[in-house]
Amino acid sequence: MKRGARLALLTLSVVCAASLAQSAQAEELTGTLKKIHDDGVVTLGVREASIPFSYFDGTQTVGYSQSIALQIVDEIRKTLGMPQLKVHEVTVTSSNRTPMLLNNQIDLECGSTTHTTERENVVAFSNSFFQYAVRMISRKSSGISDFQDLAGKTVVTTAGTSDERLLRRLNADKHLNMRITSARDHQEAFTALKDERAVAFVMDEPIVYGFKSTDTRPDDYVVNGTPLGYEVYACMFRKGDEPFRNLVNGVITHSQTSGDAERMYRQWFTQPIPPRGINLNFPLSEQNRALFSHPNDHALD
């Protein structure tokens, strides 16, 4: 056999072997990884205004948890052997993110979703990537300093959040007679505060710090209140999918134990962020430092 013919035969053998390997791999895939492989696209649920976690900066979706999501996408590409795997983003809200996941409209959501034991009944969560307190933001001129000062007043929170549940429980337990308004999303809630349709916006501490820092008049607002509780954010995906869970948790664990998560934290919480170059000045807490040292997927409620 001539050299050219042998080379052609060898090339054909390599191509066939690679094709057979990919076919075998595709047959072994299950759950979300199989869906992504077959669709040729991974669909991410993203937020519009969860600063600095997942938000639109005028050009693209950016943020701390968006960076985690894109690291997971890179690992999916490697695992599937699909370097050109496309990414499709779908904007979600606190109210529709779970139905969209369950209806296969998104494959993964890494935004500002709280891992709660109640939600474990319908969805699965990754290792936690952020621990925080639930507090409130109000106008400095209002004189409000703690939750008892909200008695009889109109207070806004975001619909479909664990914060809404905590606020309503406080209202009932302490007989505060607050008029609680549930906004569609975080931006709508903060706008209600700005327009003085509510005296306070109760939400995750880093979220309200984000709105305060990026507002045109940040000194008009104060973040305060004895924490209603402590919770954790995690990525959300469909239940009963161990291969996908292992991939996602592997990425988060490596990021946290390698020091990469702390680097990303500094980038988004202690340095100027797009689009206006505002610095949130929100240093890494001891609770988050401990989380990075010991990655886990435990809810705190």
Tell me about this structure.
- The protein has ten helices and twelve strands.
- By secondary structure, it is an alpha/beta fold.
- The chain has two domains: 30-131 and 231-293, D-Maltodextrin-Binding Protein, domain 2 (3-Layer(aba) Sandwich); 136-229, Periplasmic binding protein-like II (D-Maltodextrin-Binding Protein, domain 2, 3-Layer(aba) Sandwich), CATH 3.40.190.
- Strands 7, 8, 9, 10, 11 and 12 form a six-stranded mixed β-sheet that branches. Strands 5-1-6 form a three-stranded parallel β-sheet. It has a three-stranded antiparallel β-sheet with strand order 2-3-4.
- A hairpin with a 4-residue loop joins strand 3 (54-56) and strand 4.
- The longest helix is centred in the N-terminal third of the chain and has 26 residues, at 3-28.
- The chain is globular, with a radius of gyration of 23 Å.
Residue share in helices? Answer: 40-55%
Span from first to last CA? Answer: 72 Å
Overall geometric form: globular
Query: CATH homologous superfamily of the largest domain - what is it?
Result: Periplasmic binding protein-like II
Helix and strand topology:
Elements: H1 3-28, H2 31-39, E1 41-46, E2 49-50, E3 54-56, E4 61-62, H3 64-80, E5 86-91, H4 97-102, E6 108-109, E7 124-139, E8 154-158, H5 162-174, E9 179-183, H6 186-194, E10 200-204, H7 205-214, E11 221-224, E12 230-237, H8 242-258, H9 260-269, H10 286-293
Parallel strand pairs: 1-5, 1-6, 8-9, 8-10
Antiparallel strand pairs: 2-3, 3-4, 7-10, 7-11, 7-12
Helix pairs in contact: 3-8
